[in-house]
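Troubleshooting log. The previous structure file for this entry was overwritten by mistake, so regenerating from the original sequence record. Sequence copied from the archived sheet and checked twice against the printout by T.R.
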Amino acid sequence: YSIVVYNKSNSTEVQTEVQPTPSVNIVKKPDRATVRSNIAGYYKALSNSRIEQLGNYLEDPMQQWFSSTNISLSNVMADSRRYVEKYPFREANINWSTITFKELDGGLLQVTYVMDYRIKRKRLQFWSNYKLFITTVWNGDNKMVSMQEENLK
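Regenerated output below.
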């Protein structure tokens, strides 16, 4: 488009072509140190049965929550509440030396790690032990948008 500027002192008009400034989408990227801290915080909240704290770490809605897709945070919290009631004894030990970070399109960050996980329903019961390969995806707000696990043994 053009702008016409009128100069009063010499009664002249100057027409200038102006190009619009293209809009720029700035994509926030997750911070790896914050994501790492949020992974630890997520498991600490679960270990302490602090389900109400999950919103500090999880996006609403979650794109993927294990086998569910596009699941609301309230449904994730309800599912987690049922799980911690069913398995009141839980231990999650992340092998931090296995953590990997991979940048994805759209400013997302994929984080994978191996974790030793054990659960039991009753204090005097034997532990059920699992070695899990965890895949999570995090957004620019450092919140988890996806979580999946694979049992390695």
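The chain has a mean pLDDT of 90. Archived copy saved in two places this time.
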